[in-house]
Amino acid sequence: MIYILGRQPAIGLAELESLYDASSLRPVGDYAAVVERDTEVNFGRIGGAIKVGKVLATIDSTDLNVIKKQLESIITTHLTSLPEGKFKLGISCYGLNASPARINALGLGLKKAIKASGRSVRLIPNPETALNSAQVLNNKLTSELGCELLLIRDGVNTIVAQTTAVQDIDAYTLRDRGRPKRDARVGMLPPKLAQTIVNIAAANTPPDYGAEVFDPFCGTGVILQEAALMGYDITGSDLEQRMVDYTDANLLWLLTLKENRVTPLSPDKRYYRLEVGDATTHKWANPGGIVASEVYLGRPFTSVPDNEILQKTINDCDTILKKFLANLHDQIQPGTRLCLAVPSWFVANKINHLRTLDQLPHLGYNRISFVHSNDKDLVYHREGQIVGRELLVLTRK
Question: Which of 48, 124, 208, 354 could be disulfide-bonded to 12 (CB atoms 3.0-4.6 Å)?
Fold first, then answer.
């Protein structure tokens, strides 16, 4: 299978490496990754990839004219296994020297070959070099009579794949904006990033046999929400009773939501635990075996702060993270894996990191590095934002 990575490919690669292991993963440029495994993780739980597809062929050229000739054979052969009905075709290119106009011309050539085989076909036009998730979903290109061809440059070759699933953007929007309790003051963690945090923390621990995800800074419950949808048992805590109440309300809403892709549960059948507690001092009843959390991010900045305010904010966040890690250490088992979103600050073309990151061995933790991603690239950040979320992956010594 091949995954098309999201806006920050290093984060997507770290997530896939956590789920599948490094030896099964091969990056393709900075836009895709091939996974060679017989078993496949449910795509709906993956946050760092926008599409997944099955590989149909590899063409030893990156020239669209050469690719076109082989695609005609691939697509007409594919059609022989489909039922009668109008066929829908879309094409997306990654890493190839191809404009939307050239891709549309390629599509028209394939349309002509399909019609010559006796099938009716509708071609989805390309406003960009790649179709977005909404175009794939709205045109039902992953249905039995649909096909999105992925043309992915792999060095001097081109991988041809067929999309089997895309991110469900409507479901993400519902889980993000439809929750009854939201609070911009504690940050707006995107559900996709929450999925990634859970997957990196859980690694190869499947959501069964009582596997539990623990979030000690649960806020409004986004990480717990995504972990629950994956099938993990969940437990969480927060400093404020209000945030615990918000998490409780959001989880009850989620469990009774028909669109959540899981079996709805009655509100009286809660399978999660929530506590009020300061993460720097609290003694948890059972902190669970997988720790996934967004820790305190400090003051939200909408403009560049002066250096005094920035340094005070960094010191405050450093103190909380250090005290939290020290408090947690003796409450979890050796080998427990953590993925924490911690703050970093983009000021004057420089990234300011927490100083605690240099003290992790003294606090009793080892930082995990990835084969296919650099630590410095694991910072979730949008252009113009001051505060980023750095993904810190640890194991307890």
Answer: 48
pLDDT in tens, 281-302: 999 988 878 999 999 999 889 8
The length of the chain is: 397
Beta bridge partner(s), residue 278: none
Distance, in Å, from the CA atom of 310 to the CA atom of 188, rounded to the nearest integer, reads 21
pLDDT-derived band at 246, boundaries 50, 70, 90: very high
What does the domain layout of the chain look like in residue ranges?
2-41+48-166, 170-396
**pLDDT at 254 (0 to 100):** 86
Calpha distance 61→196 (Å, rounded): 34
Over residues 266-295, the mean pLDDT reads: 85
Among residues 294, 223, 267, the alpha carbon closest in space to that of 45 is found at: 223
Q: Is-above-0.90 flag for pTM?
A: yes
| CATH number of this structure's domain 2-41+48-166 | 3.30.2130
Mean pLDDT score across all residues of the chain: 92
Superfamily of domain 170-396: Vaccinia Virus protein VP39 (3.40.50.150)
What DSSP character marks residue 83?
A: P
Of 217, 232, 243, give the one whose Cα is nearest residue 389. Answer: 217
